[in-house]
Structures are given as C-alpha cells and as structure tokens.
Specification:
Layout (H helix, E strand, L loop, with lengths): L1 H10 L6 H4 L2 H37 L3 H14 L3 H14 L2 H18 L2 H15 L4 E5 L10 E4 L2 E2 L8 E3 L3 E8 L6 E7 L4 E5 L7 H4 L108 E15 L2 E2 L8 E6 L2 E6 L5 E5 L2 E17 L2 E12 L3 E14 L2 E24 L13 E3 L10 E22 L7 E7 L2 E5 L2 E14 L1
Parallel strand pairs: 1-7
Antiparallel strand pairs: 1-4, 2-3, 2-5, 5-6, 8-13, 8-21, 9-12, 10-11, 12-16, 13-14, 14-15, 15-16, 16-17, 16-18, 18-19, 18-20, 19-21, 20-21
Helix pairs in contact: 3-4, 4-5, 5-6, 6-7
Length: 534
Amino acid sequence: MLASLWRARRRGSCLDALPRAGRSCARLAGVAFALALAVSPGVAFAQAEALLDEGKSLMKKGKVAEACPKLEESYRLSPRSATLLALAMCHEKQGKVATAWSEYIDLGAAARKEGNKRLEADAKARGAKLELSLPRLTLSVPRAAAIEGLEVMLDGAPVDGALWGQARPIDPGQHKVSASAPGRKPWEKSVSIKRGERKTVAVPALAKDASAAAQPAPAAEAPAPAAPEKGSAGSGDGAAEPGKGAAAPGKGAAGAGRGAAAPEKGAVAAAPGKGAAGPGKGAAGPGKAAAGPETDAPPAAPPAAEEQEPSSGSSPRHTGSFVIQAGVAGGALIGLMDSGSFGDLSAYSYSYNIPEGELIAPCDDEVCHASFGPAIGPFAGGEAFIGVALSEDLHLGARVLGGYRFGGGYLAVGGPSVSMRLGRLWLGLSGLVGPVAQQAKVTGIKGEIPSEVVHLNYGRSEVAVNAREGSLPESALVETLAFGGSVDVSLVLADLPSAGWTSGALLLSVSPTIMKGLDGWVFAAPASLGYRFY
C-alpha cells in the first residue's frame, strides 16, 4: 500500500493510487480535512484575542489610528460584544462619531439578544450621547434631475433612491458625492462637514453627453468574394475568417462560424439575425441595414447639439423658502408697574391747597391713578415665527409670543426678528411691542395737583387719596403697553431636512425679554419647544 501511495505521490495525485491502495488516501485526506475544521476556529479565536488585547493597549496609549484596524480585524475573526464595544469606543475617540453611533446601536441589539441588560443600557446611553453631535448630510435630487438610470454615490458607495432627500448620519471630514446616468455627463462634488453640522447637497440635472449619443459608424470592410459551391477552409467554414465578416467587428457577415455566403446561396444571402443587414448589428447604425457589397455606407449623422437642462434644484433649506415655526411656551413674568388704573376711581376723592383754602376734588382716570406693588407669576402659552430664509443659516421674519398668566394677566407681544445658525444653535434678536397685564397688589391711590398750585402744597405734584379703610381692593389687574426686545437662543434637538413639507428642525428655545411699559418695567423669561418648518 505504501509503495502505491509513493508511486501516486510521484505521479502528483492520490487518485492514481486508489486502485492499488484502496481507500487509504481518501481516508487520510478526510482526516486531514476534519483536523483543519477542528483547529481553524481555535486559531481564529486566538488571533482575535491577541488583536483585541493589542488594540486595547494601543488605545490606552492614545494611538487610536493604529488600534481601530486591529479591533476591526479582531471583530471580523470573532464577532463578540466585548470586541464591538471596544471598537465603537475606538471609533468615537478617532472622531468617527457616525460609525461609533451605528456600532453602539448594533451592540445594544446584540446585548438584548444575549440578555445582558447592563451592557444594553450602556450601549443605549453612549449612542444617545453621540446622537446629539452627529453630522447629517442630505442628498437632494430634484424632479428635473431624477432621470431614468440615475445613480447617486457617496464616497464610492451607491445611495438607494429611497434615501434621497433624507438626512443621514455621516462621519465628520471630507466626502465626495457623485452622480451618473446613461448618456449623461458624470457629476461630482466634494463636501466638508463638521461635528454637529447639517448640510444639503443638491444633485443637478446631468447634461447630455453628445459623444455618447452619436458614436461615429465604423467603416465597412470590403465585401468577401463569392464563395465556391463548397467551402475550401474545411467543413462548415466559408472563405471568410470564422466570426468575422464584412460588417461590424465581432459579427460575421454571414453569422459567427459561417462564411461570407452560405453553401448553395449567393454572396449577399446572410444567415437570419446575423447577417450584415440584420437590425441593430449592421455598420450603418442601430435599426438600419448595412449597404450591399457594392454600396457605400451612408455618412454618419452629425452629433446633436448638447442640451443643457436646468441644473438648479430645490434644497430642503434653499434660499427664498418660507420659514414657519410654532411651539408651546412657558416661563416667568415679572412686572414692576408702579402705577395704573384698576377701573372706576370716581368713588374716591382727594384734597389739596388752593389760594382760597382747601379744595376737595373728585377722582377720575384723568387725575387719579392707583399704585401697585411688584408682581411675579408663571405664564403658559405659545410662540410663533414666520419669515423667509435669506440663506440656509439666516432667517428673517416676525416673531410673536403670547400666553396667560396664572393668577390673572396675559402677555401678547410681537415684532421683527432675525435668526442665525451657528452649528447646533440658533441665535436671534427680536423687537417686541404689545400689551402686558398682571394681577398686582394695590398699595394706594394718588391724585394729581395742578401745576399752578404746586407751590401752595409744599412743592408736591400729587397727593394721597382719602380712601376709607377697607375700600381699596387687595389686588387689581394692571395693564400697560410695553416696548422692548428679546435675545433668542435655540438648541436643535433634532434636524429633519427632507424634500417634503415636513422638512425642519425641533428646537428648544429660551428668550430673555426686557420691555419698558408706559408706567414701569416688564421682564419675562420664557422657554419654548417648537418645530421650525423650512
């Protein structure tokens, strides 16, 4: 048997020895294969462990650029949750926040399947923390650009049409967007995006490619001479070289494997579907038959003039679009309105000195006013903004803020507003005017002394009203017209640009407001949660 195997080895194959050695060679091969299958997982696991330890060591030293590839290879050899956690942490330190965020999501799903609730909660917390700082890129494809066969690619990878117009998380840095379509000139654009930034790239309508639309027709070769009654090149072959004929390269005039003329037929006769005059195959161009042996091919048509289609598309935040924001608002309202009216004052009177003696004068809204103490209370209502986008990051319009003050009162102000985007923040300024009312404590009533008798009243211009004890209300609603402004600071909680009407962002805003009333000051500290459509 050994001699047979030796001879088989010299011949280069165990199969030659099988008749002499029986099935021994096959058994040996089977044992070797089984051993390889048994050893391979163990070797892969050991390599994965070594790479994992090496990657963690490099991470601790701050060498994340070297650590991440080793962790990636370790996870490829042995996909485990511990390795995926280390890989996500490495990518996060490397600045690839979108990649790390996606890996944390995968880690949470894997931990849920394993029943590891602690790891699942950790993965969710890490992913939620990264989500607020994810850059997002929207690839907008206007209707004019969405032609048949259009392929949009991001960094060399195709983007599914269902994802056009949607904001997708992406790692910070430089990226390349490209588009191509049959018969059109390719287009590409580089875009740089920072952490937490939102950008939109509009794919233009691709220009037609004249060189691809009108290819010059290849020159027709001289017709092959008429073949004799029998082919001289061998059985089944004619005078022409196999696979070549008088028409376009790669297609014989009488079909592949046939001569210029079939036996018993003239030189012009061609095999059906493969002859020089076959549709779509002849030298004269698609859909036309080639000229006969004695006929020149018609001249190629001049290339069509290049047509430029509109290249401008509508971006979800394109300049000139209307911007509308609406939301709920609430906060504190502080009134320092020291004077005003609380209704009919004719029931009160006051006295002052005149040359003839003392005059008791009746009160009315012209000569008397009530004095009030400070008032602080919460209010709840809504806010809105309507305007136009001067650019993706600059909006100009008008803002209104209104609400009911608990305990009595209201706020209804509005005016011009401008907002500018800085990363994940919108900063704005608003000029406001409108009525403000608050329920405040009444501290007294004062009457006005005519200017001509001020000198007789110790230089006083007003005097306290003679109000009977208990006749004054404990509190009253004081109203004033106020003028002022606010500084608006908004945080983008979620940015959702798209090609539809829902394109916009969810904002959390605070708007410290200072206003001067006709009789005092008004301060407001509203916070609002709203959605800005743009």
